[in-house]
Amino acid sequence: MKNAQTYLESALHQFKYYRSVAEKTFAQLTDEQLFWQYNAESNSVAMIVQHISGNMLSRWTDFLTSDGEKEWRNREAEFDTVIKNRDEMIAEWDKGWQCLFDAINPLTDDDLNKIVLIRAETHSVAEAINRQLAHYPYHIGQIVFIGKMLAGDQWKSMTIPRGKSQAFNDKMFGR
Question: pTM of the entire structure?
Answer without folding.
Answer: 0.92
